[in-house]
Amino acid sequence: MKFADAVDGLIEAPIVTSFSNVGHAVRSRVDDWRPLWSYDMRHRTVVITGPTSGLGEAGARCLARLGARLVLVARNPDKVATVAAELATRSGNEHISTVVADMGDLDSVRAAVRSIVARHERVDALIHNAGSLFNERRTQPNGTETTMAVHVVGPFLMTGLMLASLGDGSRVITMSSGGMYSVPLTVGGIEMHEDSYRGPTQYAIAKRSQVTLNEMWAERVPHVRFHAMHPGWADTPGVADSLPGFHRLVGPFLRTPQQGMDTMVWLAADDGLPAETTGKFWLDRRTREIHKLDRTRRSDTPDRRQRLWDWVAERAGWDLP
Q1: What's the rounded Cα separation, in Å, for the pair 43 and 309?
Q2: Distance (Å, rounded) from C-alpha 57 to C-alpha 316?
Q3: CA dist., res. 149 & res. 143, Å (int)
Q4: Tag placement on the chain: N or C end, fewer CB within 10 Å?
Q5: Burial class of 4 by CB neighbour count within 10 A (0 to 12, 13 to 18, 19+)
Q6: What ranges make up the beta strands (E) of 96-147?
Q7: Cα–chain-centroid distance for residue 78?
Q8: Model confidence over 281-296: pLDDT tens digits?
Q9: Residues that are catalytic
Q10: pLDDT-derived band at 1, boundaries 50, 70, 90
């Protein structure tokens, strides 16, 4: 066993060391990571959702510096315009554009895709990063619970509608969460009822769905590289606002947004493993198992997987031909 593999195994076993800034610091050294600033993305078009704060903003800043043709997709027109202007000024990158869209609103997603494909013949990387944790149950106009709509149904529809622009070797990257390890794959309870609603649990259900669908996309669309990942425990406005107790408890061990977004940008930029593999789940530039508990592993059956795909496709109003 290589020294780096042994060290990674020791760090991975306890969640605290794996997900915290300790895991990032140690792994980046023992694996001798290539610095992100060394990548050249001047000839790649990258679409990223949720780029106005947290991990998405940190990732967009890095991608702008690397020269990528960036398309920033966000629901707030003022915020995304401000971020785009700032990125252009700081990076000198003249190829940054914006599209206003709410990922939970399917009509908005369709309009966003029409705008993107009209401007870009090929998209090299589509990064699904937008999302929030809601402590009170909300629904979208079509009746879908908002967490599932924003994290699962909207991204599913965007990916499907953009397949013609995602050429051979293009990448679809989904920002998931380690919280998905706590819940089984479910379809019957995929939208929690109002009387039993818990925001963190609904969020974890959505994240489990993302990771499962990532594997299914990879099986069904082989010319595109599909990757899901989680950033570890990162210090973002969303964590501070939605999980204040957790934020206070583990504050000193939280990763910076720059540490949290590292694997996301690496998956978009690197032509080694990210170009050679598909359907994987990543943390700190290494593939990880999608189950840590026997009860979640037992839930992951072919029947439930198919039912998940069918449910999302029905809500999105789109399916593979």
Answers
A1: 34
A2: 27
A3: 9
A4: C
A5: middle
A6: 96-100, 125-128
A7: 23
A8: 999 999 999 999 999 9
A9: 203
A10: low
